[in-house]
Amino acid sequence: MPFWPVSRSPRPRAATVLRSLLVLVFAALIGVPALSSGQVQIKGKVKILIDPGYDLFETAPGTSFDFSNTPLPAGFFGPGSQPYGGVIPLQGTPLGYFHGKATGETDTIVQRLDPIELHTPTSQAQVPIEIVALSLQSAQPITVHNGTGTEKWDVSVGLSPTASPKGSMTIHGHDKQGGTFDSTLPVLPKLTFSRLGDRKQVTLDVGKLPASSPLRSGLDLRAHHVHYTYDAAGRLLTIHGLNQGFCAGCTRTSGRRFSEKSRLAKHKVHVPDRLARIPKGFDIFQTQPTKTNFTVPNSFPIPAGFFAAGSKPFSGEIKFEGVPIGTFHGKDVGDADTVVQRKRNAHVGPGDGKATIPIELVQLHLQSTEPIKVKVGSSIELWDVSATVSHKRHSAGHMTIRKKNESGGTFSSSFPVYPLLTFTRVSTGTTKTLDMGALQLPKNVASGIVFGASNVPWQKGCRGPALHVPGLNDDFCPSLNAHAQKVLTEEQAKLAAHGVMPAQPMKLQQRQRRVRSQADGEPAQLLRRVLPARACIPIPGDQRPAVRAKDDASAG
Predict the structure, then answer these.
(1) Could you tell me the CA-to-CA distances from 71 to 46, 67, 157, 211, 255 in Å, in that order?
(2) pLDDT tops 80 at residue 433
(3) Helix (H) or strand (E) segment spanning residue 27
(4) If you average pLDDT over every residue of the chain, what do you get?
(5) How many Å apart are CA 412 and CA 369, to the nearest integer?
């Protein structure tokens, strides 16, 4: 049945509508109640009527696309690239919603296009099927060899704009509880390859290839002896109007994994569970510069003599912007400059529920957008400022996650941020550091660096434009709303503010470094440095997923 991403709404067909009307008329004539979409009616020992509907699946490990017998040609990835004939392991990315309904972990949807009528519980019947939604991507980047070395590319797979041929499902009834089915589903995919670093893309649209192409003819996915029931087990995902009444891949007690295979591909799937647990992980953000600042209060200034002999106490506002950290735990994190860790699983229950978990800011890299002015004697010195997490104290707090449906909800968070500030004199490159985590802070300062957020939207998984990084943020995407729009989250503290959005892929292969020329004509100083893995934190109560969020504010 399934295999490949994107969601395409099925086009109603006159024949399908006519068949459905005839079934309803026939049901009325024999006294069988009319059915709503997806339902099943069992009438004694006489017959079983199954409405058209949708079968929802979650992709399992073992799914792959195999280019070993039909390699991509030399030059496909660019001048000098060698043929690629590897096996690409694939995994699912949750679709989130389908026809306005939250679909949880579902990444693949197949539609049964016509009603099914079994004259007895042990009868057989055949129905046309069509894949209407699927979201897959490579489990890890593939390696492509070129004339000078190797390149890493991510892969996603979607449906070609050229419609895939219809397939069929043959149902073999066993009893009133269910039976088995066999299926055949031709698929015309579109593969998108994205190079890590500059995110250059090349595509392979199988639907545009000649009918004689081995790629086009090698993707008829077949499944055999797959169990189905007329009711899903209690923990399995059931959505009214989509898959209630018929559960493909189910037994009487649970869902069961099965494989769909073709000459070039293998797709392992199972029916998703109800959303009840959000695994621990990492949330990655990009800082919004106009929304990020930190105020050194007059009541607790940076002391006299800190910057140089004769320097005056400093207080005032410092404005920050983010600097991409590039990688985190060895993975490309796009334009992210902030990483927050969710340290425990969140058990949100099979229905609407909530859970509170510990969180910690583990990485952040911020740089002042303009130098601060420090009085030294009768002159003024310019100093740039960066902020990293304290070496002496953790920036740790808590997050309360609220589930609203199978695909998302809202959360609130609170935690203090203890920054390590690094000051760099513009004229000489001299540096000074101040670790606020090592200081005995007065109450007004300690309370002024506690960041809070509330009513921030989250979705079950990140999808474009929000960056999904396998192994980091698979199951929770903060600051993304139900329409897959990035939401500006403004984290607020008494002395600071931090505006963040979900990170997205980098558009430039090289991160540009900011260079500022000195007013007195001395050589320009390199003012932006990429800090090591422990990272920079904005003094402004940096943070991850929190702060006042505007639920429906979309961001680019």
Answers:
(1) 53, 5, 17, 18, 36
(2) yes
(3) helix 14-30
(4) 83
(5) 29
Domain boundaries, the chain: 14-274, 278-549
Dist. CA 264–CA 68, nearest whole Å: 9
What whole-number distance in Å separates Cα of residue 237 and Cα of residue 101?
12
Could you tell me which residue, 3 or 480, shows the higher pLDDT? 480
Instruction: Answer whether residue 8 shows pLDDT above 70.
Output: no
Please give the pLDDT value at position 169: 97
**With contact defined as beta carbons under 8 Å apart, do 234 and 244 qualify?**
no
User: Are the C-beta atoms of residues 434 and 421 closer than 8 Å to each other?
Assistant: yes
Provide the β-strand partners of residue 159.
189
Rounded Cα gap, residues 131 and 10, in angstroms = 9
Confidence label for 299 from pLDDT (cuts 50, 70 and 90): very high
Q: Give dist(CA 439, CA 303) in Å, integer.
A: 13
- Assign 221 to helix, strand or coil: strand
Instruction: Answer whether residue 220 shows pLDDT above 50.
Output: yes
- Determine the Cα–Cα distance for residues 43 and 466; give it in Å rounded to an integer: 49
Phi and psi at 45, nearest 5°, equal: -95, 10
pLDDT of the residue at 460: 86
Count of beta carbons in the 10 Å neighbourhood of residue 186: 16
15 phi and psi angles, rounded to 5 deg: -65, -40
427: its two tokens: 């004229």
Output the CA angle 30-36-38, nearest 5 degrees. Answer: 110
If pLDDT is split at 50, 70 and 90, which confidence band does 45 have? Answer: low
Backbone angles phi, psi at 513, to 5 degrees: -95, 140
How confident is the model over 183-208, as pLDDT tens digits? Answer: 999 888 899 999 987 889 999 999 99
Rounded Cα–Cα distance for residues 227 and 256 (Å):
8
Tokens 């005032």 belong to 316
Q: How far apart are CA 334 and CA 332, in angstroms?
A: 6
Per-residue pLDDT reduced to its tens digit, 458-516: 998 888 889 989 889 988 999 999 888 999 999 999 999 999 999 998 763 333 333 33
Helix (H) or strand (E) holding 30: helix 14-30
Residue type for position 425: R
Confidence at residue 38, expressed as pLDDT on a 0 to 100 scale: 54
Residue 217 has φ and ψ, to the nearest 5°, of -90, -5
pTM, entire model: 0.66
Q: What are the φ and ψ backbone dihedral angles of 536, each rounded to 5 degrees?
A: -95, 150
Residue with tokens 């559960």: 247
> What are the phi and psi torsion angles at 308 (to 5°)?
-175, 165
Helices (H) and strands (E) in the chain, counts: 3, 43
Dihedral pair phi/psi, residue 541, rounded to 5°: 45, 50
Q: What is the pLDDT of residue 43?
A: 53
Which one-letter amino acid corresponds to residue 98? F
DSSP state of 166: P
* CA 274/CA 289 separation, integer angstroms: 39
Alpha helices by DSSP H, listed for 340-456, are 443-448
